[in-house]
């Protein structure tokens, strides 16, 4: 037990404790405004990899707080932590710095519609709070890092229209429990569609069109109960359509044209897809009669079945 014998020290002790507490609070506040985890340093490193930015990053200097820099949003709850970076359509040229992975509180990353080059840094796997990533319409190259699966909070992944992106679609994407939107169209992806995508129980939109994907459509795709938009056109897919696709009451957009899919359309097709308004299977190898039940598709506004081996005419 501590005994204070000096009476003057005893009188000063409350003041000393108060001063120490104030110093601790001031230190914490200073740390939070200058960026936990090096958020400001990460942004500075990001800017260093941008070779051209026509005024977009002019505010990114020491004269203002980095939380006030253009495109940067900081948390109100966790002071000084960057939660969103939106630099879409800013004319950015350069590469994406690996330092982006140090923004560990980031929830939204939007770098779309620029001319960014180079690879997607694997460091994005550190962004466990990330909910949305949009890198569409750039000039990125290489493969999608497989450790994107560590971004366990992801809801939206939009990486379409980067003609330099190639390789296979990582199986690990199928382990993202909250993913609702996956768009990887207009790239150079090869290989098969991962069967793991059938595990995405919240998936509502899937677009993999205009790539070089081969093989069958995974049977599990039709087991996603919320799937409404499915676009797989302009690939090299083959095989039969999974029967589960014909029983998706949520499906409103189905685009499978320009592939090598084959088989017969079920006679009760018009009864199993009540929400469908676009049904596009042209440019495949389907055979057999055109189902008379198509007249039951009351929501149907776009139908494409040409360039197959179907017989009969669309029932009027």
The CATH H-level homologous superfamily of the largest domain: Ribonuclease Inhibitor
Summarize model confidence as the mean pLDDT: 90
**3D shape:** elongated
Specify the CATH class of the largest domain.
Answer: Alpha Beta
Biggest sheet character: 11 strands, mixed
Beta-strand percent range = 15-25%
Architecture overview:
The chain is α/β, with parallel strands linked by helices and 316 residues long. The chain folds into 2 domains: 36-167, Alpha-Beta Horseshoe (Leucine-rich repeat, LRR (right-handed beta-alpha superhelix)), CATH 3.80.10.10; 212-316, Leucine-rich repeat, LRR (right-handed beta-alpha superhelix), CATH 3.80.10.10. It has helices spanning 7-34, 39-48, 269-272, and strands at 50-52, 72-74, 82-86, 93-95, 108-110, 115-117, 132-134, 141-142, 156-158, 164-167, 181-183, 188-192, 205-207, 212-215, 229-231, 236-239, 253-255, 260-264, 278-280, 285-289, 302-304, 309-311. The strands form 3 sheets. An 11-stranded mixed sheet has the order 2-3-5-7-9-11-13-15-17-19-21, with no helix packed on it. A hairpin with a 7-residue loop joins strand 2 (72-74) and strand 3. The chain is elongated, with a radius of gyration of 27 Å.
List the helices and strands and how they pair.
Blueprint (H helix, E strand, L loop, with lengths): L6 H28 L4 H10 L1 E3 L19 E3 L7 E5 L6 E3 L12 E3 L4 E3 L14 E3 L6 E2 L13 E3 L5 E4 L13 E3 L4 E5 L12 E3 L4 E4 L13 E3 L4 E4 L13 E3 L4 E5 L4 H4 L5 E3 L4 E5 L12 E3 L4 E3 L5
Parallel strand pairs: 3-5, 4-6, 5-7, 7-9, 8-10, 9-11, 10-12, 11-13, 12-14, 13-15, 14-16, 15-17, 16-18, 17-19, 18-20, 19-21, 20-22
Antiparallel strand pairs: 1-4, 2-3
């Amino acid at each position: 037990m501590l005994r204070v014998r000096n009476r003057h020290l005893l009188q000063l002790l409350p003041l000393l404790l108060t001063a120490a507490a104030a110093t601790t609070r001031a230190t914490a506040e200073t740390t939070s405004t200058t960026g936990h985890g090096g958020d400001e340093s990460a942004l500075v490193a990001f800017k260093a990899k941008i070779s051209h930015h026509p005024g977009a990053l002019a505010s990114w200097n020491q004269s203002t707080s980095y939380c006030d820099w253009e495109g940067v949003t900081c948390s109100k709850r966790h002071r000084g932590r960057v939660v969103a970076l939106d630099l879409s359509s800013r004319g950015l040229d350069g590469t994406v710095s690996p330092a982006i992975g140090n923004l560990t509180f980031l929830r939204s990353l939007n770098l779309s519609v620029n001319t960014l080059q180079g690879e997607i840094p694997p460091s994005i796997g550190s962004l466990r709070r990330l909910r949305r990533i949009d890198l569409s319409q750039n000039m990125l190259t290489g493969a999608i890092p497989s450790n994107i699966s560590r971004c366990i909070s992801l809801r939206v992944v939009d990486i379409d229209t980067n003609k330099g992106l190639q390789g296979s679609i990582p199986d690990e994407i199928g382990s993202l429990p909250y993913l609702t939107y996956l768009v990887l169209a207009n790239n150079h992806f090869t290989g098969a569609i991962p069967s793991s995508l059938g595990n995405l129980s919240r998936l509502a939109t899937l677009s993999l069109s205009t790539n070089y994907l081969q093989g069958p459509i995974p049977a599990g795709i039709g087991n996603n109960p919320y799937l409404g938009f499915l676009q797989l056109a302009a690939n090299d897919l083959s095989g039969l359509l999974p029967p589960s696709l014909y029983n998706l009451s949520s499906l409103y957009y189905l685009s499978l044209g320009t592939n090598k899919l084959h088989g017969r359309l079920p006679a009760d097709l018009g009864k199993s897809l009540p929400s469908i308004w676009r049904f596009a299977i042209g440019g495949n190898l389907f055979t057999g009669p055109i189902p008379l039940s198509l007249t039951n598709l009351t929501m149907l506004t776009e139908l494409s079945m040409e360039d197959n081996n179907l017989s009969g005419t669309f029932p009027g």
